Amino acid sequence: MTTLTRAPDTLTRDALTVLQPGFAGTTAPDWLLRRLGEGLASVALFGRNVTSPEQVAALTAQLRAEREDVLVAIDEEGGDVTRLEVRTGSSFPGNHALGAVDDVGLTREVAAALGRRLADSGVNFNWAPSADVNSNPDNPVIGVRAFGSDTGLVARHTAAYVTGMQSAGVATCTKHFPGHGDTGVDSHHAVPLIDVDAGVLAERDLVPFRAAVAAGSRAVMSAHILVPALDPDRPATLSRRILTELLRGELGYDGLIVTDGIEMRAISGTYGIERGTALAVAAGADAICVGGGLSDEDTVRRLSDALVEAVRSGELPEERLADAAERVRSLSAWTAANRPDPSGTGAGDTPDGDVGLRAARRALRVTAADGFAPLTTAPYVAAFTPVANIAVGDETPWGVAAELRRLLPGTETGSFNGPDAGREALTAAGGRRVVAVVRDEHRHPWMAAALDTLLAARPDTVVVEMGVPRAAPRGALHLATHGAARVCGRAAAEAVVGTGH
Fold it and tell me: Are the C-beta atoms of residues 196 and 135 closer than 8 Å to each other?
């Protein structure tokens, strides 16, 4: 057993400092404010904490009244993964749309505008961007969250995103190290395996992270993935070889290392969250993300106690915990020093306030059959809806129905899933023109079969692909939006009625 050289209250404060917990509700509970006074340095916001920009600004002000330098973190990628606009869909297209345009200046501009939106709400730490190279077409959790499947493209847009967002005073957290793109399993549910050699990893997956480090990303998030070429025994989040030797040593990274959600099954189902937390910090992680699923004071107590006990037992060196806490405080100092002028204008008040829609329009890929004419009467929108992955969630609306209804009043819609989806959609549509909306058709055989059924009976059907467009275009008009953000739906609706810009 080690001999403690620091006061127990300092040890407890350091244990609290490295946690990034969530909570329930739209105002800060008393226990959270009390913990901020005891040493907690970060708070995580999720969709359940958000009702409006004004409410989020009031909430973050409440947190700062207790601790002025608090890090307020959020998972705001834009595109399919949005928390600020969880009820409406995002005003900004996601990474895949930006990669499809491949204009690094536009990516920087979008990230800066999104950063200002976050800063206006009092958020100063964003768990984004995803720097994963989506090299596995069947990836169930990355997909449109990645800039693409080309390493060079992902690297240059990751760097542009980091530069743009941090120009607004919001720290970025590039994820999911060492790369979650070549997985067929969602780490929310189990431990994915990336079984390629170290050379492939170096030339493909690590390149965007090197670009992020060079661009000055203030944080990097670890992935709960097993990469035997790097560490055959432990997932990246718990691997000293990956976090300390590779990321810190070989890549020369000196910023904050944050874990992905520690309660995800890849960690909680194999190690438990208490042991997983202690192992992660011992491996080199500086902050523990928790709260997507567990969001109460008991979780904070359990994890802080686990860290203190790990130091007492000798499993976690006291100096490692102190170093992790100091890195959190360093990031707090950076965000405080780069806090935007509150008298400045927000993204909605600046000339680039519409940059999200402009980007979504540029990302739209249109394939029209000979003789296609824009729709002039209200159609029936058949949404073929897959089960959403946990990162995206099922609470955020997506599709084109709302935007088409605005342009063509009387538009109706229905959601369909499963082996009879095509026939059910035909019955529901009746004699109306059909707009079929899909998401990753290439990954869902039932969805491809539904389109087969629909197009055989109604070849004039318009098809809108809002996922990764790997299936061949078909239909009278095929629109690939490269994401399901609200602005992507608007760009597609404009093309359906012929008012695209």
Answer: no
Active-site entry in 260, 286, 478, 482 = 260
Residue 126 near residue 74 (C-beta atoms within 8 A): yes
Q: Are 426 and 458 spatial neighbours (Cβ–Cβ below 8 Å)?
A: yes
Closest to 261 measured CA to CA, from 247, 280, 244, 246? 280
CA–CA gap between residue 393 and residue 77 (Å, rounded): 13
Nearest to 83 by CA among 391, 489, 487, 466: 391
Q: Is residue 442 annotated as a catalytic residue, yes or no? A: no
pTM: 0.93
User: What does the alpha-carbon distance between residue 129 and residue 159 come to, in Å, rounded to a whole number?
Assistant: 9
- Known catalytic membership, residue 260: yes
Please answer whether residues 302 and 333 qualify as being in contact, where contact means their C-beta atoms are separated by less than 8 angstroms: no
CB count within 10 Å of CB 340 equals 17
What the block records as the tokens of 387 is 């089960």
For residue 265, what is the DSSP state?
A: H
Catalytic residue among 180, 188, 478, 482: 188
What token pair was written down for 477? 């008009």
CB 448 within 8 A of CB 43: no
**Spatial separation of the C-alpha atoms in residues 123 and 74, rounded to whole Å:** 7
Measured torsion, CA atoms of residues 401, 402, 404, 406, in degrees rounded to the nearest 10: 160
Q: Compute the distance between CA of residue 432 and CA of residue 36 in angstroms, rounded to an integer.
A: 57
Contact assessment for residue 277 and residue 262, using Cβ atoms and an 8 Å cutoff: yes
Q: What is the pLDDT along the chain (501 residues), one digit of tens a residue?
A: 444 555 558 999 999 999 999 999 999 999 999 999 999 999 999 999 999 999 999 999 999 999 999 999 999 999 999 999 999 999 999 999 999 999 999 999 999 999 999 999 999 999 999 999 999 888 878 999 999 999 999 999 999 999 999 999 999 999 999 999 888 766 566 678 898 999 999 999 999 999 999 999 999 999 999 999 999 999 999 999 999 999 999 999 999 999 999 998 888 889 999 999 999 999 999 999 998 888 999 999 999 999 999 999 999 999 999 999 999 999 999 999 998 775 544 444 444 459 999 999 999 999 999 999 999 999 999 999 887 655 666 678 889 999 999 999 999 999 999 999 999 999 999 999 999 999 999 999 999 999 999 999 999 999 999 999 999 999 999 999 999 999 999 999 999 999 866
The alpha carbon of residue 314 and the mean position of all alpha carbons in its chain are separated, in whole angstroms, by 35
